[in-house]
Amino acid sequence: MIKDKSIFIKNIYYMLSYAFTTLNQSNFENVAKEEFENMHNLLASILAKGIGQQLKQGLYREYLNKKENIVVMRGKIDMPGTIKNKIARQQVLSCDYDDLSENNLLNQILKTTVMILLRLSKVDSEHKDALKKEMLFFSNVDTIEPTSIRWTAIRFCRNNQTYRMLISICQLILEGMLLTTEEGEYKLASFVDEQRMCRLYEKFILEYYIKEFPMLSASASQIPWALDDGIGTMLPVMQSDITLSHGERVLIIDAKYYSHTTQVQYNVHTLHSNNLYQIFAYVKNKDAQLGSKPHEVSGMLLYARTDETIQPDNIYQMSGNKISVKTLDLNCEFPEIAAQLNLITREHFGI
Predict the structure, then answer these.
(1) Containing structural domain, residue 269
(2) Model confidence at 194: pLDDT above 70
(3) Which of 8, 178, 258, 311 gives 2 a disulfide partner, CB atoms 3.0 to 4.6 angstroms apart?
(4) How many structural domains compose the chain?
(5) What's its EC (predicted)?
């Protein structure tokens, strides 16, 4: 899919920069200027700089419940445990207490990810050295089994908001790139899988339009079903990837990151049928929602371009709405990628 891997890796950084605005801060400037031969070095560099910044602010700590035998009372006395100690002629108290500790899930995820990166031959020594120095401050933090992490259960609060980007990078590494060998050891795949890349791809496009086109209303909005009787039991949620609106015009974009932009049967290339049905349903239901007031709703399937010979570039007029199928070339310098995205807004909104 990728002809020039170095250009693609550099663009992954820009995609991450829009997806996580933290990467636009000054301490990540050098990352944008570096040349990376693989994804491992890029993510290791981002993680090293991010953890370094977090260390300057201090590691997040939270109260964890502990139970131990101590000479001086702390917290609450655990009577059964204390009686057991007395019977065993141990002159100590069994106590339950809360301890403000850095050995919490967020720091455990950071340390676990770094320890895996340190064992990879594809990560250059300069990035490993930076990560090793930072791990000296994690001596009281445990590592955990990567497959045991429940990512959806992680919650951020005012005290740990600075961890949001770091944990997302860790998730990209541990969940999106991590493979388990038969021997039980871990290694990283060359690139993240289609599913995770698709999430990053669609988030990048949305955040690009939010930042670069503030005059547009850009969101990943839900589209209500146009129901005659109002009964929508068991109907799936219609969740758009990107919805752009300006004045009377609305453009719904479905971002797709596939290894093949078309489906082939008997040497005949056609569009992915499910994708086309989906964007058509989004457009028609959005059109119905806006009712009789003046409006224009269009839809677009925006695929990440592959190196296949046949690439979709079509515009269809369907039941009064325009549905287009385009590709976005990620295998070029970022200003060219931006120009492609800008052209979409110019064609649809005149902006």
Answers:
(1) 195-349
(2) no
(3) 8
(4) 3
(5) 3.1.21.-
